[in-house]
């Protein structure tokens, strides 16, 4: 269990460091496409580097789907979620520390890759659009994960399929919410930014967890299970 916890901390650190780091440190240079690719590559890296230890969930919504699918215990779920939040917060802190090396960086102005919606964020999409996007995108993401890691799925390709799916989700939704589909990924930056990021954080817990739960329920029901 200790090894699994460490793997989830490190894996979630990789996800946030690659993804949020690309947005904060290199966003002006690589654009939205580059950020989407960075998030996708982070999953590939963590999945192949640490997946053999913990499964590389890196995401409470994924762990919830796996729990409902009967592939982990409640105790493991709690441990995974705590580890994921720790990893995401540590990574956000490191990105912030690096970002402050640029004299003109101001977290209140530049942000820290936090998720959000409404006026002044992204393209100004409203609450309903943000909620629907996060729920649907997380449902699709967790559905792919449960299918790609099933015993009947092609061996050795799960990490690639999952990473490409996350990149695709970012190509669709960065302008809507910045793309969470992951409560831990949202928590780390929001904790450091505070203000609106923290006040809107509830959506990036509720919608992804609902999406992950729905994916788990349909998998258990056999609707999306490949057997």
From TrEMBL:
Main location: membrane
Keywords on record: Cell membrane, Membrane, Transmembrane, Transmembrane helix, Transport
GO cellular component terms, semicolon-separated: plasma membrane
Membrane-topology descriptor: Multi-pass membrane protein
PROSITE patterns: MIP
Entry's localization field: Cell membrane
Signal peptide range: none
Record Pfam families: MIP
InterPro entries: Aquaporin-like, Aquaporin_transptr, MIP, MIP_CS
Transmembrane segments: 12-39, 45-70, 77-99, 125-148, 155-181, 201-221
Any one GO MF annotation of this record: water channel activity
Family membership noted in the UniProt record: Belongs to the MIP/aquaporin (TC 1.A.8) family.
NCBIfam families, alphabetized: MIP
Name of the protein: Aquaporin
Organism: Pararhodobacter aggregans
């Amino acid at each position: 269990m200790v090894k699994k916890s460490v793997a989830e901390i490190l894996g979630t650190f990789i996800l946030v460091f690659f993804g949020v780091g690309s947005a904060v440190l290199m966003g002006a240079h690589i654009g939205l496409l580059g950020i989407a690719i960075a998030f996708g590559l982070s999953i590939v890296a963590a999945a192949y580097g640490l997946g053999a230890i913990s499964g590389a969930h890196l995401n409470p919504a994924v762990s919830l789907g796996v729990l409902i699918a009967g592939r982990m215990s409640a105790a493991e779920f709690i441990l995974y979620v705590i580890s994921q939040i720790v990893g995401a917060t540590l990574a956000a802190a490191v990105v912030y520390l690096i970002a402050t090396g640029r004299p003109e960086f101001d977290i209140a102005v530049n942000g820290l890759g936090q998720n959000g919606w409404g006026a002044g964020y992204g393209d100004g999409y409203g609450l309903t659009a943000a909620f629907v996007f996060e729920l649907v995108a997380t449902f699709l993401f967790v559905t792919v994960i449960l299918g790609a890691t099933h015993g009947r799925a092609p061996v050795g390709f799960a990490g690639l399929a999952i990473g490409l799916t996350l990149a695709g989700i970012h190509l669709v939704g960065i302008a809507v919410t910045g793309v969470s589909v992951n409560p831990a990924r949202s928590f780390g930056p929001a904790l450091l930014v505070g203000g609106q990021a923290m006040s809107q954080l509830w959506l990036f817990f509720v919608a992804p967890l609902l999406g992950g739960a729905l994916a788990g329920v349909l998998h258990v029901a056999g609707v999306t299970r490949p057997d």
